[in-house]
């Protein structure tokens, strides 16, 4: 029986599958492996540990500033860019939507993505009615010749570096080539959600040379503020002005701006640096451990806060995933992604969480 939503919604949305976020996958009551509070979340690339910021509620009876000065100035100092080059958004995801809505005409223009990659590029394009051109990665790097063949056919290009779910950075030469080849025919977006784990590979200093470059950032990963939903779009002032015409009138709440500003202060940034260093150490330990496991066929190099690996076959992949889930340890199954058959992704949580993960797998494998 057709509902009013089915009848009146855009036809292509009726059968569209939404993005399955880490929380959405386990939001139903059908998962009885463990209560949410007892789960070990290693499937969303979040930082481990409790939050340390208090909320100031004195100003919540008033609408916030469109772009709070305290937040923009703090991120300006952190990123080494002018405030005119920064737009604060509700996570980097809002930046993706704004770019597509601003530069793509619905049902006319196309975006280009390089799978395997972050799923929200395609979802946001579908929601807007933009076509999606796909040029798959080759050995987790850009297929430059195939991308060049799309010149004049796309309006926005999304490059993820470090990549999600692959984990590795794209070469700077390949990103520059894309920027040079497309010139002023397309916006080139470099998603740097994980750049704090590989800061030497940032393209932020390139903005003065490439007027079509847009960079996405977030406080959800290295800053341990995923629940805050605060991201940034970095671009030349004319692009920021254009995006500002499309964004909601009050995108950043006052409490979010207050906490995010504190997270960008000097002492807090020192904690971010320590967190990144600890993550890199734990990532190397997990990488080495996975390489030694007979059931693991390949471990992908990572410049982010997660590791992708391939099991020897589908049955083994399912066994590892299920035995962890039964113990309330949640990782991400990436095997539906192009080129990633039998692949699972593990977020780098705390040392305790990763120790529990390893021991759970060891105990399960012993029983086979």
Explain how this protein is built.
There is one protein chain. The protein is an alpha/beta fold and 368 residues long. It is 36% helix and 15% strand. Strands 2-8-7-6-5-3-4 form a 7-stranded mixed sheet, sandwiched between helices. Strands 9-10-13-12 form a 4-stranded antiparallel sheet. Strands 1-11 form a two-stranded parallel ribbon. The longest helix is centred in the last third of the chain and has 26 residues, at 266-291. The radius of gyration is 21 Å and the shape is globular.
N-to-C SSE string, H for helix and E for strand: HHEHEHEHEHEHEEEHHHEEHEEEH
How would you write the strand order of the largest sheet? 2-8-7-6-5-3-4
Helix content: 25-40%
The total beta strand count reads 13
- Broad shape: globular
The overall pLDDT average reads 93
SS content category: alpha/beta
Give a short account of the largest sheet: 7 strands, mixed
Total of helices:
12
Radius of gyration: 21 Å
Q: Spans with pLDDT under 50 lasting ≥5 residues?
A: 28-34
Strand content: 5-15%
Distance between the termini: 47 Å
């Amino acid at each position: 029986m057709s509902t009013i939503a089915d009848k009146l919604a855009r036809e292509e949305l009726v059968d569209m599958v939404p993005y399955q976020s880490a929380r959405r996958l386990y939001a139903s009551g059908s998962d009885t492996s463990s209560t949410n509070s007892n789960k070990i979340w290693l499937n969303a690339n979040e930082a481990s540990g409790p939050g340390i910021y208090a909320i100031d509620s004195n100003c919540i009876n008033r609408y916030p500033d469109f772009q709070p000065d305290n937040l923009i100035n703090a991120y300006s100092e952190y990123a080494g860019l002018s405030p005119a080059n920064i737009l604060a958004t509700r996570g980097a995801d809002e930046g993706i939507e704004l770019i597509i809505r601003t530069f793509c005409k619905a049902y006319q223009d196309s975006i280009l993505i390089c799978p395997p990659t972050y799923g929200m590029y395609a979802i946001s394009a579908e929601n807007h009615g933009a076509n999606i051109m796909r040029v798959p990665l080759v050995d987790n790097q850009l297929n430059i010749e195939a991308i060049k063949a799309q010149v004049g056919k796309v309006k926005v290009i999304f490059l993820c570096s470090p990549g999600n779910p692959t984990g590795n950075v794209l070469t700077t030469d390949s990103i520059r080539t894309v920027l040079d080849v497309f010139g002023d025919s397309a916006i080139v977006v470099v998603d740097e959600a994980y750049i704090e784990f590989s800061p030497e590979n940032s393209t932020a200093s390139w903005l003065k040379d490439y007027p079509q470059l847009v960079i996405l950032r977030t406080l959800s990963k290295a800053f341990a503020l995923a629940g805050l939903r605060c991201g940034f779009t970095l671009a030349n002032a004319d692009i920021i002005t254009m995006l500002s015409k499309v964004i909601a009138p009050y995108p950043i709440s006052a409490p979010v701006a207050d906490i995010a500003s504190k997270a960008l202060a000097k002492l807090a940034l020192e904690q971010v640096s320590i967190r990144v260093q600890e993550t890199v150490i734990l990532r190397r330990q997990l990488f080495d451990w996975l390489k030694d496991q007979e059931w693991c066929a390949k471990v992908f190099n990572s410049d982010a806060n997660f590791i992708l690996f391939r099991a020897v076959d589908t049955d083994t992949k399912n066994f590892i995933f299920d035995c962890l889930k039964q113990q309330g340890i949640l990782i991400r199954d990436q095997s539906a992604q192009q080129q990633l058959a039998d692949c699972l992704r593990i977020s780098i949580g705390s040392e305790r969480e990763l120790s529990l993960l390893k021991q759970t797998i060891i105990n399960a494998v012993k029983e086979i």
